[in-house]
Amino acid sequence: MKKYDRIFAVSCILATLAFFIAVYAFSATSYIPAMEGGLPSYPQSSAILSVLRIAAPICAALFIALAIFSFVKAKNFGGICSTLNSKASSFSPVYLFLICSAVILVCSLIYISQHRNTVWDHYIFRFGEDMFMDFFNHITYVRVPSEVYSISEHACFPPLIYIFYYLLSLFIPTNATVKHDASMTSPYAIVMYVMYAAICCIFLYLVVNKLLKRFGEKTSILTMLAIIVSSVFITVIERGNSVLIVLILLLASLYLRESDKKSNREMALIFIAIAAGIKIYPAIFGLIYVAEKKWRESLRLIAYGILFFFVPFVFFGGIDGLMTFISNQMAIHDDAYTSFTSISSSIRYISLKIFDDPFIWETAANIIPWVFTALALLAFFLGKLMMWEKLMLLISIITFVPAWSGSYTAVFFAIPMIFMFKQTDDGFGKGLTRAYNLLCTVCFTLAFSLIIFVLPSGTVLYEIRYIAMYTVVILVLVKGFTNFIRSKSKLKDTK
Fewer Cβ close by (within 10 Å): the C or N end of the chain? Predict the structure, then answer.
């Protein structure tokens, strides 16, 4: 291993360690309710925490600078690609993503050091009063399997994932988790969650490494680190939602479906069916097979989906459990949100800001998501798009169309991002293609970076992740319909 390669690897590890120490130091006393007027009240921090809040961000910034320095010294700045992968011949979007993510990370850490722990109140749900409860609540719900859907209307997942939660409940004391009360979660349960999250991250890296093998292991590691320390991923970990399992399954299925082995391609179908059995909406990935006119695979996928969705109800109340599950789903769907997490909630959010009433444009909030779905599907089937662009459209449907979509669902956009990097390994292209790929890369960087800033008005800049993703979706839609119109024009010319 070359000298600067060794420095690069060590500095990346130390930078990551310093970052997590900084996160701990700044969030250690951030779970304090806000006082009147919206200003948080915090107890005096220990001297050690005070030192860590200054030293850890500085160390992280220095180690990142050292990593960039070793990048440059390994060859030259134009040879960064070769530093990561000796076979690389051009500056690809993934490298721009990594460089921009590192810069944003340093800026965010400096911001945190200036504003102390108050900044985390905008990222930690309910000041930590509901920490990890998308994980622990469902473990609590399923302690009596046959009554899981009667415990709470928030027991709204398909039964397949409750098999997993039930198995986990067997390894901790019955009082280790309490429904809707994070303060009562025991250390036993916390340790189990940490192990679960760590294992998920390992599997996620393994899949990312397979998909980005063209760039080499260093690039895969850095891409994975950038995703892990992003504000999106922090939200996923803080909520403890099962989207992380679904993300791994979908990425693995997309990798396996390209295999020459029939068994691997069949496993891809099973993974999609399992993902749909956990979150329902990943079933839309079956359209990939429909678009490719792989009818047999499509039929087998439907069979697997029925198997993984309906059969587990045998253990969770049978027909009564199914009916209660549907009732819970309808109750959750009736919730109205005001945020950028979905199209309808975005419309309500804008209406609230302009008219001080979120329901002024309620008709539009109900109609536009369906119009968007139709446009996205037309572009998917007719637009002659690259795979990453097709994935972008599918992910936008399952993320932006459901009105109750949570902020953690934005992590699914890592799928088209990774496939964009995979399919643009020869560079940004030329002309309009170059500008298009550059803009999409910048948008993905904004979505998957540690953006932690609060404007004086109180607006949190992490909302920019949704604006960035809406931008990419619009660009893909425009490209899809442009391709369709051009193909029709060429067909007329030939006639």
Answer: C
Q: From CA 426, how far away is CA 91, in angstroms rounded?
A: 8
In eight-state DSSP terms, residue 233 is: H
What is the radius of gyration, based on Cα positions, of the chain? 23
Q: Which residue has the tokens 């199914």?
A: 322
Nearest to 317 by CA among 136, 172, 171, 162: 162
Rounded to the nearest angstrom, the gap between the alpha carbon of residue 290 and the centroid of all alpha carbons in its chain is: 26
Structural contact between residues 226 and 448, judged by C-beta atoms closer than 8 angstroms: yes
Using left for φ > 0, alpha for ψ between -120 and 50, and beta otherwise, residue 45 falls in beta
Domain residue spans of the chain: 1-118, 123-334, 338-495
- The whole-angstrom separation of Cα 450 and Cα 102 is 9
State how far the Cα of 212 lies from the Cα of 254, in Å rounded to an integer: 13
pTM (predicted TM-score): 0.81
140-173 confidence digits (pLDDT tens): 999 989 899 999 888 889 999 999 999 999 999 9
Strand partners, 479: none
